[in-house]
Amino acid sequence: MVKAYLRYEPAAAFGVIASVDSNIAFDSSGKHLLAPALENVGVWHVRQGLCTKTLAPSASARGPSLAVTSIASSPSSLIASGYADGSIRIWDSEKGTCETTLNGHKGAVTTLRYNKLSSLLASGSKDNDVILWDVVGETGLFRLRGHRDQVTDLVFLDNGKKLVSSSKDKFLRVWDLETQHCMQIISGHHSEIWSVDTDPEERYVVTGSADPDLRFYMVKHDLVDGQSVSNTNGTDAVKNSDVSTQNKWEVLKHFGEIQRQNKDRVASVRFNNSGNLLACQVAGKTVEIFRVLDEVESKRKAKRRINRKKEKKSTKGSVDVAVNGDASHEAGEQGDKPVLTVSDIFKLLQTIRAGKKICSFSFCPVTPKNSLATIALSLNNNLLEIYSVDTSSTTKTNAIELQGHRSDIRSVTLSADNTLLMSTSHSAVKIWNPSTGSCLRTIDSGYGLCGLFVPGNKYAVVGTKAGTIEIIDVSSGTCVEVLEVHGGSVQSIVAVPDGTGFVTGSADHDVKFWEYQTIQKTGEDSKHLTVSHVRNLKLNDDVLVVAVSPDAKYIAAALLDCTVKVFFMDSLKFFLSLYGHKLPVLCMDISSDAELIVTGSADKNLKIWGLDFGDCHKSIFAHSDSVMAVRFVRNTHYMFSAGKDRLVKYWDADKFELLLTLEGHHAEIWCLSEEKEKRLEEMFEADLDNTFESRYAPKEDLPEEGAVAIAGKKTKETLTATDCIIEALDMAEAELKRIAEHEEDKSRGKVAVFQPNILMLGLSPYDYVLRALSSVHTNDLEQTLLALPFSDALKLLSYLKDWALIPDKGIPQGYDVSKTYMEDWNLDVYFDNTILLLLALYLQVELVCRVATVLLQLHHNQLITTVAARPILTLLKDILHARVKECKDTLGFNLAAMDHLKQLMALKSDALFRDAKTKLLEIRLRHSQRVEARADVKEGRRKKKRQKKSDDVHVWS
Question: Is 528:519 a contact under the CB 8 Å cutoff?
Answer without folding.
Answer: yes
